[in-house]
From TrEMBL:
One of its GO terms (molecular function) is phenylalanine-tRNA ligase activity. Its EC number is 6.1.1.20. Belongs to the class-II aminoacyl-tRNA synthetase family. Phe-tRNA synthetase alpha subunit type 2 subfamily. Its main location: cytoplasm. Tetramer of two alpha and two beta subunits. It comes from Apodospora peruviana. Residues 232-499 form the Aminoacyl-transfer RNA synthetases class-II family profile domain. The keyword Aminoacyl-tRNA synthetase applies. InterPro entries: aa-tRNA-synth_II, aa-tRNA-synth_II/BPL/LPL, Phe-tRNA-synth_IIc_asu, Phenylalanyl-tRNA_Synthase, PheRS_DBD2, PheRS_DBD3. Transmembrane segments: none annotated. This is Phenylalanine--tRNA ligase alpha subunit.
Length: 506
């Protein structure tokens, strides 16, 4: 049967369905209309079902399809049978090299020999392979199994599993329709009017006309509107929480930083692994930045690294100004926090610096190996609280409140090391999709070696915390692979269908 291509063909298909159903009830679409495209038969059945002329139900089943290698086996025999026939014809046996030459394919020889040895069709006799005397003929089971599958598209589950494991077949889902007569079944479809016209009223033909009923369950035309990415939704939630808690947003529109602000100002030693090429993206043109305007601050940073200052013994290594001026793609937005704290120190009036709360949400770049939970380009949520009398317990309480507003609870903390914070803590949350705890942030109290070179007073304490934007998003939206948020694996349909507002929020 030729697949329908136009409206007249659709009418023909509707008629053919009715004619076929009048002879046999019920019928299966894949048997009665094997050559008709799925969309065409579905459209015809929906048309008939809307008039109660037929009823139908969708039936799904799996069929086994042969791979090209399996089709070759059906035509020429299994690998083991081909090996056996070659060995049997050679009366004195064959060496491995001779067998490969006779068969003509190394992979067939290797696989076939193993199976033939297992079936005890052949054996090793010195350096030769010979056929067993007791075996006059063989039963090529694999070939027969594949022939059956080729004809019937199925077999015993155990056999299907074994052949699938050998990559000789694949399973394909087949969707068909079981079609039955409906309460208003007829061989001809009565024309249904869709509108009540003035002519029908004038002539009175409306009295005998059949009107098509309204389908109040029909979906409207799909609107190709824009959609907010889940990351943008969670980002908006984070910003709102920060604003509610009295934070000011920091400017983060500078992706390229000098090593001075990205590392040295944060008391990260120049030999730290984070500054290696395998962890950081360095800029090739231009390679370096200009010196900071505040020469005294740069000198303080040099001394606190090289010899120690402000009560610190330092790292005791020759600090390189050239290394500090190398340009990098920023590895964290903490470089922005350092610059903001430096500006805050300038507001020192009579030894008193005003308390401040800063935050930022923007991209950072790290030379990471991409996997289900890591990207080389991602978003960091950065926060800084500068005040007097701050304690580590206060930081933990703040993180519980902050994430609680996001609906992320049961946080766990683990001691950690950061060059610029002491004490430091990693923050974890349980991910149901991955069925494990995942790290969602890092935090700590900024070290005096970082703060005092800026001119900040000793009694001013600073909380610092860096949180991933992607991982809380994964937890809230049940995403197990971070590459589904950014990168080539992003499902645009999932983004478009994602609810504009999460109803699980408190």
């Amino acid at each position: 049967m030729v697949p329908p291509t136009g409206s007249s063909s659709t009418e023909d298909l509707v008629t053919e369905v009715l004619q076929t159903l009048s002879k046999t009830d019920p019928i299966l679409s894949t048997e009665a209309f094997a050559q008709v495209p799925f969309e065409s038969i579905k459209a015809a059945l929906d048309r008939l079902a809307s008039r109660s002329m037929v009823t139908y139900e969708q039936v799904e089943r799996e069929e086994a399809l042969l791979e090209p290698e399996a089709e070759t086996i059906v035509s020429h025999g299994s690998h083991e049978a081909r090996v056996f026939e070659v060995v049997r014809k050679a009366m004195g046996g064959l060496s491995i090299q001779q067998l490969e030459k006779e068969v003509g394919d190394k992979s067939i020889t290797k696989l076939g020999s193993g199976k033939a040895f297992k079936e005890k069709w052949i054996k090793k006799d010195g350096s030769s392979i010979v056929a067993l005397v007791s075996v006059d003929s063989i039963n090529d089971v694999t070939r027969e199994q594949l022939r059956t599958i080729q004809e019937k598209r199925t077999h015993e589950p155990k056999i299907l599993a074994e052949l699938k494991k050998r990559k000789l077949l694949k399973m394909q889902k087949i969707i068909s329709f079981k079609i039955s007569k409906g309460p208003k079944f007829a061989l001809e479809m009565v024309k249904e009017e869709t509108d009540l016209t003035a002519e029908m009223l004038a002539s009175g033909s409306w009295k005998s006309a059949t009107f098509k009923p309204y389908n109040f369950k029909a979906l409207g035309a799909e609107q190709h509107a824009g959609a907010l990415h889940p990351l943008n939704k969670v980002r908006s939630e984070f910003r709102q929480i920060f604003f509610e808690m009295g934070f000011t947003e920091m400017p983060t529109n500078q992706f390229v930083e000098s090593g001075f602000w990205n590392f040295d100002a944060l008391y990260v030693p120049q030999q730290h692994p984070a500054r290696d090429l395998q962890d950081t993206f360095y800029i090739s043109d231009p390679k370096t930045a200009g010196r900071p305007e505040d020469v005294e601050y740069m000198e303080n940073v040099r001394q606190v690294h090289q010899n120690g200052k402000f009560g610190s013994i330092g790292y005791r290594y020759p600090w390189s100004e050239e290394e500090s001026l190398r340009l990098v793609l920023r590895t964290h937005t903490t470089s922005v926090s350092a610059a903001m704290l430096y500006k805050l120190a300038a507001e020192n009036v009579g030894g008193r610096v005003p308390p401040a709360r800063y935050f930022s949400i923007d991209r950072v770049f790290r030379n990471e190996t991409v996997d289900a939970t890591h990207l080389c380009e991602f978003h960091q949520v950065e926060g800084v609280i500068a005040d007097y009398g701050l304690t580590l317990g206060g930081l933990m309480e703040f993180m519980d409140i902050f994430f609680g507003k996001m609906g992320v609870t049961n946080l766990m903390y683990k001691p950690a090391y950061n060059p610029y914070t002491e004490p430091s803590m990693e923050i974890f949350s349980y991910h149901k999709g991955l069925n494990k705890l995942i790290e969602i942030g890092n935090s700590g109290m900024f070290r005096p070696e970082m703060l005092e070179p800026m001119g900040l007073p000793k009694d001013l304490k600073v909380f610092g915390f860096g949180l991933s934007l992607e991982r809380p998003t994964m937890i809230k939206y049940g995403i197990s692979n971070i590459r589904e948020l950014l990168g080539h694996q992003v499902d645009l349909t999932a983004i478009q269908k994602n609810p504009a507002v999460r109803l699980d929020k408190n």
